[in-house]
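Hey, I'm writing a tutorial for new members on how sequence and structure tokens pair up, and I'd like a real worked example in the thread rather than a made-up one. If someone can provide the structure for the chain below, I'll link this post from the tutorial.
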Amino acid sequence: MPVKEKGKKKSPAASVVEFVVIIAVALGLAIGIQAFLVKPFRIPSPSMVPTLKVGQRVLVDRIGQHFGEPGRGDILVFKPPRGADQDVHTCGSAIGPDNRHPCAAPTAQRSSQNYIKRVVGLPGEWLKVLINQVYIAKTQAGPFKEISESYIAKGTPCDDSLCNLPEPIRVPAGHFFMMGDNRGESDDSRDWGPVPKKWIIGQAFFTYWPPDRIGTL
């Protein structure tokens, strides 16, 4: 009758090495998934209320942007222009809020921070803002049509210079005009310009915290 050979007992050193390798592989997979596939983000400000509240957590698709263009209404995580994270926001163009235009171009450098906003203007479109509502046209002469924005916060006050920017600008090629849903509490492209596609990290597609808000976006 054959006798089973007992497996060799692992030495303490081999067990430690195996544990370290398993942890390293798990960390590598987690980092790889976040770097190339899906990344979690926490909402830091009220700029996207009521769609996203402060502290809410979302998952961001990092691969879709490589195979297509963002669309109007998409919620994107991106690096804003360097001018967005200064105490006094800087527009990269002489055409900006000071002369009743939305900011026409970003600064050349990007910020190290991550922002989350919604796409409201696409490359090549002409855009203006009236009482916090976005109006789009194919040419500077118009006609300008108000886009449907059922997602924006209701009753947003119009008490600052950014809620009325009646002089239109053209969104540059390869750029996207981003605004928060909470127009009265959002620092966005109106102030610091459209965002180049290369600065976009990905599209928020699912919220997983808090439990009562779990679902697709």
